[in-house]
Amino acid sequence: MSRSLNSYIKQIKEISSSGDNFSKEFIFYLKEELNLSDLSIFVDGYKLSKAEENSINFFIEQKKNGVPLDYILQNSSFFNNNFYVDNRVLIPRPETELIVEHIHNLNLLPGMKVLDAGVGSGCIGCSLAKLNPQVDIFGLDLSLDALKVASINKEKFDLNNFYLLNSDWLQALKENTFDIIISNPPYIAPLDPHINDLKHEPIEALVAENNGLADINIISNQAFMIIKEGGLVLFEHGYNQSDDVKRIMTKFGFKDITLIKDYQSQPRITLGRK
Questions:
Q1: Whether 181 and 241 share a structural domain
Q2: pLDDT (tens digit, 9 = 90+) per residue, 122-138?
Q3: Confidence (pLDDT) at 19
């Protein structure tokens, strides 16, 4: 005998310690995954099919294990688009949208080349490619798994100006190739206590040695050779790393270094020119 939806809603409220996020995510799941309306959820006493029961049971088990909702749905919203994601890539964060916004507002010229170093899901590169069809966007990653996810999103949005490359940062690229290089690299220190909260995401995309600065140091060094004269290099980083990132970029010759603050007025993006 099939269970009623109301019985699941009651169960979810009992499971949730606060009655808030778990319940809200469950309602969102019902709408997104099972295409149920508010009327079906809250009014009708909706009777579930076996397939719907199985889907809900899957959701409950995943949430009990702490799996983020975006991974359960295999979908993440970023810059007004829905991207495919799974645990091979990081879940896009709202503050990363600032990179897309800033680069797009530069009014990129036809034929310019932009590199996204550490492309992950492709959310930055795909967004820029959609907004700027006159520009060639390149997404680079060492992880073949990440490149497979980025390829799914490239095909989803039918992008002919978005290209994917496999490389250990920029070492495989030619000098004086790109007008803009952007990167949201690993920047969390290995002993950062917040790592436990991110246990379902790929650790190699999160953590860097040297207090989270090792990859920023490598990319800055390589980027100065790869970027064209006058070109722009931009990093996303931790809120307390802006001084260190500025120091690193200055060391390798970048100038006109400026900061961009996130939605909480924290310095999260540093950029400079060759």
A1: yes
A2: 999 999 999 999 999 99
A3: 47
Name 157's Cβ contacts closer than 8 Å, sequence gap at least 6.
Answer: 81, 126, 129, 130
Q: Please, which residues have CB within 8 angstroms of residue 81's CB and are 6 or more apart in sequence?
A: 123, 126, 127, 130, 157
Beta bridge partners of 207: 188
| pLDDT tens for each residue of 119-178 | 999 999 999 999 999 999 999 999 999 999 999 999 999 999 999 999 999 998 999 999
Residue at 262 is within a domain: yes
What's the CATH code of the domain at 263? 3.40.50.150
Strand bridging mode 76-78 / 81-83: antiparallel
* Contact assessment for residue 180 and residue 114, using Cβ atoms and an 8 Å cutoff: yes
Q: Quote the pTM value.
A: 0.93
In a domain, 78, yes or no: no
> Do 21 and 152 lie in a common domain?
no
CA distance 144 to 88: 9
| 169-172, long-range: CB < 8 A, 24+ apart | 169/117, 169/140, 169/142, 169/215, 169/218, 169/219, 169/222, 170/115, 170/117, 170/140, 170/219, 170/222, 170/223, 170/225, 170/226, 171/222
Q: Are residues 127 and 257 in the same domain?
A: yes
Mean pLDDT of 54-79: 95
Question: Is pLDDT above 90 for 75?
Answer: yes
3-state secondary structure (DSSP) of residue 104: helix
**Is the same domain home to 183 and 135?**
yes
* Angle (nearest 5°) at CA 240 between 236 and 245: 55
185 lies in the same domain as 269: yes
User: Domain residues for 262?
Assistant: 90-273
**Shared-domain flag, residues 189 and 230:** yes
